[in-house]
Amino acid sequence: MAGRLSKSLVATIGVLLAVLLLAGAQSTVQAQVVFHSPQSANLPTAETLSKGQWLFEISHRFFPPVADGADVLWGFDGPVINRLGLAIAASDRVMFGVLRSNLSDNLELNAKARVFEGGSDATPVMIGLMGGIAWNTEAPTGAGADENESQQYAQVIFNTLLGDRFALGVVPTVLRNPTIEEAESQTVFVLGLHGQLYVSDGFSFLGEWIVSENRGVEQAYDSGSFGIELETRGHFFKVVLSNQQWMNPTQVLGGTGYEFTPGEWRVGFNIQRKLIF
């Protein structure tokens, strides 16, 4: 059974790479913007950069819950889970990236393509594909982690704009090996939902929910996040509250150990900067 699932995932990633190549070969088409940023709090959008642009990211999720109050500076005392990322646009439709989180030294290589634009002027639709493979180079002790197993994922990204200001995203995902501590790898289905209300060109509210299956104490609950985004001069600066401390896709997609209640909310931020050389 595991062998069949593994072959199925390999085939999925193979199809994804083929579509990436096809998308990269297409001529440039100016699409109507749905989401401004290539990423919500954790989930991807179908948005890509212009050819030759780079995207640098530094993001934090703080350990102490906000509810612990002044003793932990309302969540800002740390420590933190840190993520660094760098991506390049190989074309106006295709991006390749690398991410590293200090949680288990999770190192990811990924690719994303915007493959379709359609709908109407009032309700534009954008579709993208994304996939990645990650290695946990300092994984916790466990039968699976001792073998330093890799993790993979493949996503289809559906985005649309409702009215002039509300962007909606649906991200069905296939995730391989969500729990690295287990000796036997699994292939699971995860559903991501997110939305963003643009109050102005530079300010918006965002929220997302990742539906996953209960897989034990550390992955017992769905991940939820909400917050604001500030956009200015090539920067996307997000401040969020979340019951999820993890960030890299193969980690965050599997679930969280905290319920989505005010007593478990943690502070986080994402900073992304477009670079043009």
Summed up:
10% of the residues lie in helices and 46% in strands. With 277 residues, the protein is mainly beta.
Major β-sheet profile: 12 strands, antiparallel, barrel
H and E string: HEEEEEEEEEEEHE
Would you tell me the structural class of the helices and strands?
Answer: mainly beta
The number of helices is 2
Fraction in helix: 10-25%
Q: Based on CA inertia axes, which overall geometry fits?
A: globular
What gyration radius follows from the Cα positions, in whole Å? Answer: 18 Å
State the end-to-end CA separation: 48 Å
CATH architecture: Beta Barrel
> Largest sheet, order of strands side by side?
1-2-3-4-5-6-7-8-9-10-11-12
Low-confidence stretches: 1-5, 23-30
CATH topology: Porin
Find the CATH superfamily.
monomeric porin ompg
SSE topology sketch:
Blueprint: H1 2-25, E1 54-62, E2 80-89, E3 94-101, E4 106-119, E5 124-136, E6 150-162, E7 166-176, E8 187-198, E9 203-211, E10 223-232, E11 235-242, H2 249-252, E12 266-275
Provide key terms for this protein.
277 residues; globular; 2 helices; twelve-stranded antiparallel barrel
